[in-house]
Amino acid sequence: MxxxxxxxxxxxxxxxxxxxxxxxxxxxxxxxxxxxxxxxxTVVAAPGTGWDDGQQRPRDYLxxxxxxxxxxxxxxxxxRHLVLVTVAAVLVDAxxxxxxxxxxxxxxxxxxxxxxxxxxxxGLHVELARLADPQVPTELAKVVNRLDFxxxxxxxxxxxxxxAIPAGGTITFSGSATR
Length: 179
Description:
By secondary structure, this protein is an alpha+beta fold. It has one domain. It has 6 helices and 7 strands. The strands form 2 sheets. A 4-stranded mixed β-sheet has the order 4-5-7-6. The protein has a 3-stranded antiparallel β-sheet with strand order 1-3-2. Strand 6 and strand 7 (169-177) form a beta hairpin. Helix 2 packs across helix 3 and helix 4 crosses helix 5 (101-111). The chain is globular. It starts with a helix and ends with a strand.
């Protein structure tokens, strides 16, 4: 069954059952005009990142440049992670945010619901629903500055109903959603 990640991968000209450094770079270039290293670093933080030597690494271990890692796309959690990384990267670029993709990623679900991501001629179409009264998630309260979070929320809520994605495509925001 096709999902949002299939549309993203198709837009980037990718397919297969895993993403490695080269594919993550291609994906970054397809969805954002920002430097690809930030996107790649955020991809590596996938819940099920695998290592070619078969050894497990600590969750916060980063080995971006060696190319000995891969993200298994058969794992639903990894697929969702890549969709959210893509949406975070698109938002950072389209809204010209000062926050980085890796910062936006963990707070994104507290601010918007990702309704759909589709490939369209010339880019992606991302549908987001703004959440009413976003709050810093409890598990992030010690690491996310509340003023930075407020700035991010304000940028999302200031955005018009349709925002162009610099790499191609559009983001549509629906009004405040409730959970």
